[in-house]
Amino acid sequence: MDITFQYDSAESDGFLESLPIELISTIFVHYVHSIPTTSPLTLGKICRRWRYIAWSTPELWTELTMDSLHSTSETHIELAEEWLGRSGSLPLSIKYSSYQKGTGDIDEEPIEADSEMLAYSQRMLKVLSRCSDRWHTLSLVLPSNVIEEIGTLTRPPSMLHSLSLEARRVDVDEFRLHARYPSITVTFLKCSPKIVDISFLKVSLDWTTVTVLNIKIVNIAEVACIFQDAQNLSECTLEAVHAYGTRITTIRESNVVVCPHLTSLVIFFASVTSQELFCSAISLPALKYLTFVGMEDNDTELSMDGLISFLSRSSCALVNLEIDEADFHSGSLIDLAPLLSSLTELYIWSSDDRISYEKDAFYELLADPTRVPTHVLPSTPYTAYPMLPCLEIYDWHGCKPYPWLTVPGLLNPVSPNGFQHRRPLQLVKIHCTDMPGRMLYIPQVVVRLSEECDDVEFDLSVVSDWDSP
C-alpha cells in the first residue's frame, strides 16, 4: 500500500482531528517503515498534533541510521540520544558509520582519522551503548582504536540477532607481517547473534547460534576454532584467509573439525599455506555451494591436491562450484572432474592469459575423453562417463582464447563405452577477453549449434581488450 501525506491546514481541523490517535499512529508506523528514505522527523514538521503523536509512538524510533555525513557533530549526538529515548523498550536496529564504507579491498589506502572525528565517534558509541540490552541489529564502522573501546557493556546485548563490525584505518603491513589487528574479547561473549559480519577485526563471541558468517581477514587457526563451535553455521564467506603467526604443526596434528550444516562457502586464500591448512583441518559434509579462489592480484599457486583431499574427506555433493583455474597448476583442473558428479552449475574464471594446451585437457575431457592422452587422464579413480553428467549451467570467463571445438561435446559428450547421455544443459555462457594481436572468433560449427538448439540458451562473446598496453 502506498501512502502519500499531503497536508492542507484548511482541512486539518475536520478530517485529521476526527481520526483517533491510535489510527494515526498505525498509519505513521506503516509509512515510515515502508519507505526507507523517510524519517519520523518529517512527520513532526506537519503540525503540533502530528508531532505529539510521532514523538509518543515508540515504533517510529526503533531504526537509527547515521552515516559519515551525519555523525560528526554535537547536534547529531544529541539527536541520536533523543531518538533512542523515544523508542521506549523496543528492540533496536542501529547503523552508525564515522567513515564511508570502503571498497572492501585489503590493499586500499588507510584513512587517517582526525582528533575531532575520534572524539565524536567515542561519544556516539557511548550513547549507543546505553541501550545495548535492546540491540537487535547493530552495524558499526569505526576507527580501529575507537571500536576497541566498546569494552564491557553494563547491559549485555542479549537480544542481538545481527552483528556487523568494521574497523577502519588498518595498517595492512601489520596484518601481513605480524597478524596484528584490533580485537574485542569480552563485549559479545554472552550474546548469541545469528548473522555476523566482521571486517579487519577479531571478535570473541558465542558462535553456537550463528547461521550466516562473513569475515574479512582471518587467521586459519581462528577459522578452525569458529567452525568447531559454530555447529549451526549454514552460509559463510571468508576473505583473505592467512596463516601469519600460526603454529602450522599444531593445526596439522589436531583432529579434523567437522561443521555439519554448512552448505555454502565462499573462501579467498591469501597464501597456499592457509589453503593447505584449511583443506587438512576442515570437513564440510553438507557443502553444496563452493567458491574456492586465491586473493585477487595474488600470484600464489593453490594446491589442487589439497582441494581434492578436502572434497573427498567431506564426501559432499556439490551442486555449484566457482573456481579460477589460474590459481592451480596447469592442467590440474582435470583431476577435479571425477568429484563433481552431482554438479549442476559450474563457473570457471581464467585470469591467466597464457595459452596452455594442458589446461585445455579438462575441456576435452568434458567433450570427448577419447581425445585426452592416457597420462593426462584424472588420477582420481572414476568409473562412469560422461564427467559432470548433471550440468545445467556452464559459465566460463577468461582472458585467453577458449577451446571452442569442445562446445558441441558439452551437450552431447562422447562416451568411450558407447553409452549415450546428454547433459541437461540450460545455459552455456562463454566470454573471452583477449589481448590485441590474437585472432578472436567463434567457429561456424559452434555458431550453428547455438542457433539450432532451442532448449539451450547460448551466450557467447569474444572481446579484444584494446585498452591494454
UniProtKB/TrEMBL annotation:
SUPFAM superfamilies named in the record: F-box domain, RNI-like
F-box domain span: 16-65
Name of one Pfam family that matches: F-box-like
InterPro entries: F-box-like_dom_sf, F-box_dom, LRR_dom_sf
Protein name as it appears in the record: F-box domain-containing protein
Residues forming coiled coils: none
Superkingdom per UniProt: Eukaryota
